[in-house]
Design brief:
single chain, mainly beta, 5-stranded mixed β-sheet, elongated
Length: 305
């Protein structure tokens, strides 16, 4: 499972000042600079990914004695091309690789377009090197695969979640992110997580994904008794873990069972059982033993985007 990191896109070339020959002592030993991989494949909802670049000494005495500057360019290729600043964004096309590391990355963010489409391709090619020469493998072909034809992946991304507070009766809305596992990982097509509830990025609601390929219908299931937040400091109580649950009619804590939600055909609205309630029950960190204290209670969950 991959969590997205904060991505700061450099929109203006003026924000990046490349080192020149006058303000850097470039490597003078015999090295070549190449792409680590000839092909890379990513899903369009993966967010940020790296195209690795490495420096290799031409002989045993050719260790780097200074930094190397690498400049790349991107090109549309194939029958269904990926266009720069439409289907992907490059953070910067000139990077510096220092002698202590010997490797670097061209950082790229794929754009999630919410459309069903064929895979799109483009190339990243080394076009200039300061402090070395361009190696034989100068190009990486990048394929951006569609995620919208796979409903498990289509549900992932940014949403707005709304719910009614059981203590105040007021409606609240939070910016949340639905994340999941990568194809091939345990949990893929089975488990999703909703982060950002209550306005905190570190909260995480576990959700089971169900889909019937024959009928092309599915639903989400929210189980009780899962870890919602870990190591939260509460005044007067200390550091606590938070588990989801509900309350029975006679007032007892319930951490078994679940409730469900369904998405619409456009995948832009999810409605959950309006009668279902979620409480956040506290337990001393690492104990898993609820102490009877409640952090929150909500009902009437919906999600839109």
């Amino acid at each position: 499972m991959k969590f997205n990191k904060i991505f700061a896109l450099l929109l203006a070339a003026a924000m990046f000042t490349a080192c020149s020959d006058d303000d850097a002592d470039w490597n003078s030993s015999a090295v070549t600079v190449s792409m680590d991989e000839t092909e890379i494949s990513v899903k369009e909802n993966n967010g940020i990914f790296n195209v690795p670049v490495s420096v290799k000494a031409d002989n045993e005495d050719g260790a780097m004695n200074g930094p190397v500057e690498v400049t790349v360019e991107v090109t549309e290729v194939g029958e269904n091309t990926a266009m720069e600043n439409v289907h992907y964004f490059v953070t910067q096309k000139t990077i510096k690789i220092v002698a202590e590391e010997g490797t670097g990355n061209i950082e790229i963010r794929a754009a999630d377009d919410n459309d069903i489409n064929e895979a799109r391709t483009f190339t990243v090619t080394i076009v200039d090197v300061k402090g070395g020469t361009i190696g034989e493998n100068a190009t990486t072909t990048v394929t951006i695969k569609d995620n919208d034809s796979v409903f498990y992946e289509k549900l992932q991304g940014r949403w707005k979640m709304s719910a009614t507070s059981l203590s105040s009766g007021s409606s609240e809305t939070w910016n949340v992110n639905v994340i999941g596992f990568n194809e091939g990982e345990p949990g893929y097509n089975e488990v999703l997580y909703i982060t950002g509830m209550l306005g905190y990025e570190w909260t995480m609601l576990e959700v089971y994904y169900h889909f019937d390929m024959e009928t092309k219908t599915g639903y989400l299931e929210v189980p009780y008794g899962t870890l919602f937040a870990e190591g939260v400091s509460f005044s007067g109580l200390g550091v606590m873990d938070v588990y989801t649950g509900t309350v029975s009619e006679d007032g007892y804590i319930v951490v078994r069972g679940s409730f469900t939600g369904e998405w619409n055909d456009e995948f832009n609205f999810i409605t959950f059982d309006p009668e279902a309630q979620i409480y956040g029950f506290l337990a001393p960190t690492g104990s898993g033993s609820l102490n009877g204290y409640v952090w929150f209670g909500y009902a009437g969950f919906t999600m839109t985007r």
